[in-house]
Amino acid sequence: MKIDKAEVIVTSPDRNFVTLKLTTDDGLTGLGDATLNGRELAVVAYLTEHVVPLLIGLDAHRIEDTWQFLYRSAYWRRGPVTMAAIAAVDVALWDIKAKAAGMPLYQLLGGASRTGLLAYGHASGKSNNELFDSVREHQEKGFQAIRIQAGVPGLKSIYGIASNATFKGNDGVRYDHEPAQRGAYPAEEDWDTRSYLRHVPTVFEAVRNEFGSELPLLHDGHHRMTPIQAAQLGKSLEPFDLFWLEDCTPAENPEALRLVRQHTTTPLAIGEVFNSIWDYQQIIREQLIDYVRSAVTHTGGITHLKKVLEYASQYQIKSGMHGPTDISPVGMAAAMHLGLAIHNFGIQEYMQHGEKTNRVFEQSYTWDNGMLHPGDQPGLGVELNQDEAGKYPYEKAYLPYNRLSDGTVHDW
Ligand code: CS2
Ligand code: MG
């Protein structure tokens, strides 16, 4: 079974997505997500110019060998663009192999280790009342775990607050927070860590008082704190028993997490901007995190992320795969199949895609009482409607960036 055709499909229904579609000489097709939010066209070029020409004629069954060929033959290794491109090929080949076997993909990964995948959604609000409404809406939609992001007094705009926290579109109420704004230049947001550190504990105290102590609550620090500030926040949130504090400090310096770990027992999740096992090596070996945040889409696909999670399982570290709307339905399906099969599944991020996106990507996953399941269609269970995709051409979009009050650029 040879790869006969490889297409890079860019479409922008609710936001930009890059999808690789492989077709074999016996007519089987496979999809892979290659979306890198704000840098989509870099991956398009990497695939179109440097990868697609090498795929034609390869044996579609040789997934590991193709992975190693694309990784090692490039000479220049790792990085989000390379690993997103390799991920797209990898997932498309897994999709094909599972279709050829007549099985849902998770069956080829060892079969189901659970009946469903606990998911968490994103609640947000500029005020506590707006936040509480958003939490209630997520509970009404079935979410059993909820991420809490709140406005900070004195800051004009801040990460994670939906422009319209409850998007009342044709597909009903949907939390809609696409951080990447369409436009020719990144939006500038403001930031002040001290205001944030003073405010966040009051938000979680209010949420616990309103919703009780049982509801699993998560929070995303989004890379903005120094290690000692992250330690301070983790410690101040201990009374509110978080499921996790995410990206508490920029992850390029793994040793920073040693200091955070010394000061707080709040569980830590890191890795949505990581793209290889080597990014995790020290923080897994030293048990500096509790959850691996990578998405299949950005970490070399199912083949590589499965290796990361197997390494993490030796240290009782679990998965917490990245799943915002910039992970396409193809990437989400890959995450669900992998999450269903591995033993050390933790939780799956799940921001529901919009109506237009769901028309472009025909999916067979299920969402029931806060649990996801990839479904039992052969393969990934996602098909791309190329006519529908053609209605939505690419539109340049950038993630925002931060400046402090004195104008210094800061992590967003
Ligand atoms: C966030 C993302 O979902 C998350 O945890 O960190 O919204 C992130 O900001 C975007 O995926 C970046 O593209
Ligand atoms: Mg995050």
Descriptive notes:
The chain has 412 residues and is α/β, with parallel strands linked by helices. The protein has two domains: 3-104, Enolase-like, N-terminal domain (Enolase-like, domain 1), CATH 3.30.390; 117-377, Enolase-like C-terminal domain (TIM Barrel). 36% of the residues lie in helices and 21% in strands. It contains 13 helices and 22 strands. It has helices at 40-55, 63-73, 80-101, 105-108, 128-140, 193-211, 227-237, 256-263, 277-285, 301-313, 329-341, 355-360, 386-389; strands spanning 3-11, 17-24, 29-33, 117-125, 145-150, 164-169, 172-176, 181-182, 188-190, 217-220, 244-246, 268-270, 291-292, 318-319, 348-349, 361-363, 366-368, 371-373, 382-384, 397-398, 401-403, 409-410. Strands 4, 5, 10, 11, 12, 13, 14, 15, 17 and 18 form a ten-stranded mixed sheet that branches. Strand 11 (244-246), helix 8 (256-263) and strand 12 (268-270) form a beta-alpha-beta unit. The longest helix is centred in the N-terminal third of the chain and has 22 residues, at 80-101. D-mannonic acid is lined by residues 37, 179, 220, 222, 272, 322, 324, 326, 349, 399. Magnesium ion (MG) is lined by residues 220, 222, 246-247, 272.
Feature tags:
412 residues; alpha/beta; Enolase-like, domain 1; TIM Barrel; 2 domains; ten-stranded mixed β-sheet; 13 helices; 21% strand; globular; binds D-mannonic acid; binds magnesium ion
- Largest sheet, strands/sense/barrel: 10 strands, mixed
Q: Determine Rg (CA atoms, Å).
A: 20 Å
Tally of alpha and pi helices: 13
Total beta strand runs: 22
Quaternary class? single chain
What would you give as the CATH superfamily of the largest domain?
A: Enolase-like C-terminal domain
Number of domains: 2
Structural class: alpha/beta
Mean pLDDT: 95
- Looking at the structure, the CATH topology of the largest domain is TIM Barrel
| Terminal Cα span | 45 Å
Tell me the β content. 15-25%
Spans where pLDDT lies below 50 across 5 or more residues: 169-173
Percent range of helical residues: 25-40%
Shape: globular
Please identify, by name, the CATH architecture of the largest domain. Answer: Alpha-Beta Barrel
Hetero groups bound? D-mannonic acid, magnesium ion
CATH top level assignment of the largest domain: Alpha Beta
